Automatic annotation (TrEMBL), chain B:
It comes from Streptomyces cellulosae. Pfam families: LigXa_C, Rieske. Residues 27-134 form the Rieske domain. Keywords: 2Fe-2S, Iron, Iron-sulfur, Metal-binding, Oxidoreductase. InterPro entries: ARHD_Rieske_2Fe_2S, Cholesterol_7-desaturase, LigXa_C, Rieske_2Fe-2S, Rieske_2Fe-2S_sf. The keyword Transferase does not apply. Gene3D superfamilies: Naphthalene 1,2-dioxygenase Alpha Subunit, Chain A, domain 1, Rieske [2Fe-2S] iron-sulphur domain. This is Rieske 2Fe-2S domain-containing protein. PROSITE patterns: RIESKE, RING_HYDROXYL_ALPHA. CDD domains: RHO_alpha_C_DMO-like, Rieske_RO_Alpha_PhDO_like.
Amino acid sequence: MAGFVKLSVPVGPSSCARAATSEEAAFRIDHPLASARNTRVVALDEVAAGIVREAAALEWGQARFFTVRDPGPTLVEVEGGEVALTGVLEDTNTVVMVSVTGENADAVAVIGVECGARGIMTAGLVVTPGALAGEALLQLRPYARILLVPAEPDDLVELLKATRA
Amino acid sequence: MLRPEINDLLCRTGPGTPMGDLFRRYWQPVLLAEELPENDCPPVRVKVLSERLIAFRDTDGRYGLIDEFCAHRGVSMWFGRNEQGGLRCPYHGWKYDVTGQAVEVPSEPENSNFCANVKLKSYPMVKRGDVLFAYLGDPAAQPPEPEWEAYTVPEGHVFTSKRLQECNWLQALEGGIDSSHVTFLHGGNIDTDPLFKGSKGNLYNKRDLKPYFEVVDYEGGLLIGARRNAEEGHYYWRVTPWVLPNFTMVPPRGDHPVHGHFWVPIDDGNCWAWTFDYHPTRKLTEDEIAAMRAGFGVHSANDEAYRPLANKDNDYLMDREAQRRGETYSGIAGIALQDSSLQESMGPVVDRTKERLVATDAGIIKARQKLRKAAEALQQGVEPVGNRPQDQRVRSVAIVLPADRSFVDGIGDAMIAEPSKPHTTV
Ligand code: FES
Ligand SMILES: [Fe+2]
């Protein structure tokens, strides 16, 4: 019976997935999921800032919204105050960068390198409807682990909602 | 996370549901041709999109896909006698042709025209390659017959299998879009599997375990590009197309056949994972087909009812020793079962209000958004994409490109299927 030693064999209702009804299979312990991604959204140009401001106006758990300009690293909050990039990144684990025109490449690099060093997940939205290639893509590519190309304006809100920002 | 009403919208595909309406705008694979192997062979039950149907092949070789239940008193036509141009109910002998039209009602007087008014619901079904595709939607909106490359290549170039997956179709589809699980879950397979091994791309895969992703919105759906470092100044790209609503293709490796899937809802808690492998320029070899039948590549070894031999009744033949040795990452053998075991473990319809997505799930997020928008638009009378021949002439691609090329530009026509054009692969 060597097979029985090696293989897992379901022995009763509690260990056999098959024995579960759909209701049982759907059972999940009901405890609230913390929205702990601490997402920071950064607009990389003026047009992107418009998209980011619109998203910022909705209600979020912990997401915060900024714009940035060359040469970085100072970020500007949507309400207008200036903050240091390093301070913002301190308790962050996801940075979403939004670009339309591909401007401010130096600032992108500063953010990207800083996120890389701290192990912060980076995502990029290239909001260039209809265009698959361009400055914005090339500028973000080295620094965004995942890119949406071209992203639609409502992708930012979808992404933030889906990740419980 | 997804709101419960959106989860419902995307997962329910029965008649009259928005996603069900969307699916009913596409030809879907419903049977392997081998299930109706000859004229007047036994009829076969087909459950698709929560509808119960019977498929049969009549004396003249015509295919029929009709309502499972006899119009007289509701007996399942699975018990029927398939004879002389139609399927006859064994209870009182009513007989139907492939269009569902009653052609004989023996209890009625000889020259009665009673028959003319009895017709079972029926759907068109066509054979393409080794698969039968059916269209369950409004006849007025019927799209052209399917033109997926796998089903336009010469005979002998394609092999298709199907396997029962005991969970909602969307869970299965999302696995096909979610390229970020491949390095983990399937990491053990690419070097040993006879249908993957030996390709140069495998080296790039192993050297760079943290791929970057680009999700590109294109006409028929999405292109998901996974990018790894290649030689100096170059990236190795693996490009997976998803075509609405339920078609995905895996990027090729070397000269191996290229494969893909359809994820077809049976009902809301089950689906068929359809798997094809084809080669655009040559016949599949006997060895390749034997490997596919044995469950290598992305196929599975199944019983006669197309249920995988490793299934939830036997804990998918979990092998903890292989898991410990790292031979398989999850302890389950074979890519197909590695995927389906985990997807079935999420429950028949996973509660997406409880998930905790991360940024690298952006492909899944985007696909859900496109499905929702397509279903909602159809309710407003806007026809979907993915059912036109140009959407279906698509290929997956594996390619090395200079670091500053957009992968869509870089692959150019390589993702467009054309007869006897070699596929672009590394
Ligand atoms: S790690 Fe992805 S589902 Fe558990
Ligand atoms: Fe997989």
